[in-house]
Amino acid sequence: MLRLLPLLLAIGYGLVLWSFSARNLKRQLDSRSRRLRDSHLQPILDRLAAAMGVAEVPVHVYEVSPVNGLAAPDGRVFLTEGFMRLYRDGRVSAEEIASVVAHELGHVAHGHARRRMIDFTGQNALRAVLVPVLGRLVPFAGVWLAGLISTALAARLSQRDEFEADEFASALLIKAGFGTGPQISLFEKLDRLTGSPGAAAPAWLLTHPAAEARIRAIRSNEARWR
Fold first, then answer.
1. β-strand partners of 71
2. Confidence of residue 151 (pLDDT cuts 50, 70, 90)
C-alpha cells in the first residue's frame, strides 16, 4: 500500500489542480464574456442549430486578445475578442467563424473537457512513476526525461481530441450546407493571422496538430463520406 502512496497522491493532486483550474476559468469567463450578438452571424449560427436539431447554438465572446475558440468545461462555447476582431476586419468570413463554433461544439459533444481531466491526472500519475525509475537509471536527467515523456503523451492525447473535434465540425458543416471549405480555408491562413510559428516545437510536443495534417484529415473524411 505504501508503494502506491506516491501514485495515489499524484492522482489526487491532479484532480485538485484540475478542479481549481476549472473553477478559476469559469470565474474568468463569467466576468469577462458577453453573449455574441451579430446580425450577420446569427443566420449562420441558426443553420448550425438546425443541422443539430436544437433551438439555438449560444456563443459567447471572451474579451481577451489572443485568437482562439474555447469549449468550457460546463459546455459553453466561446470565441475570443481577438477572433471577432479578425471577423470585423474582414480577415475571417462568417462561414469560417461557423467552422470554429462547429469545432468547439465537437469538443462539447465528445466530452473532451472531462477526458482531459482524466488525461491530466494520468499524466501526473505517470510522472510520479517515471521520476524515481528514470532518476535511478539516468541520474540528473531522470526528472527532465519523465517530464518530457509525460508532456509528449499529453500532447498526443490533445491532438487526438483536436482531430475528433475537426471531424465533428466537418460533418456538421456539411449537414448545414457550408461544406468543409470554410474549415480548410481558415486552417490555411490561421498561422499567418495568429503569428504562430509552424515549427516552434516538435509536432509530437504540440497540443494542436499541424494545420497541414488537419487539412489532410478533413479532406480524407469528406472523400470517404461522399
1. 77
2. low
Are the C-beta atoms of residues 88 and 82 closer than 8 Å to each other?
no
- How many beta carbons lie within 10 A of that of residue 96, not counting itself? 23
Contact 165, 107 (CB under 8 A): yes
Task: Tell me whether strands 59-62 and 33-35 are parallel, antiparallel or unpaired.
Answer: antiparallel
Between CA 47 and CA 50, with CA 76 as vertex, the angle to 5 degrees is 15
**97 grid coordinates:** 467563424
pLDDT in tens, 6-60: 545 555 555 555 566 667 768 888 899 999 999 999 999 999 999 999 999 999 9
Nearest C-alpha neighbor of 130 from the set 2, 10, 1: 10
Measure the CA angle with vertex 219, ends 70 and 226; round to 5°: 110
Return the C-alpha cell found at 143. 526528472
**223 is written with which cell numbers?**
472523400
Q: How far is CA 157 from CA 177, 202, 208, 219, in A?
A: 31, 15, 10, 22
**Can you tell me the distance from the alpha carbon of 81 to that of 87, in angstroms, rounded to the nearest whole number?**
10
b/e sequence 197-220, b meaning 16+ C-beta within 10 Å: eeeeeeeeebebbebebbbebbee
182, 194, 214: which is closest to 67 by C-alpha?
A: 194
How is residue 69 written as a grid cell? 475558440
Strands 33-35 and 69-71: unpaired
Domain range list for the chain = 2-225
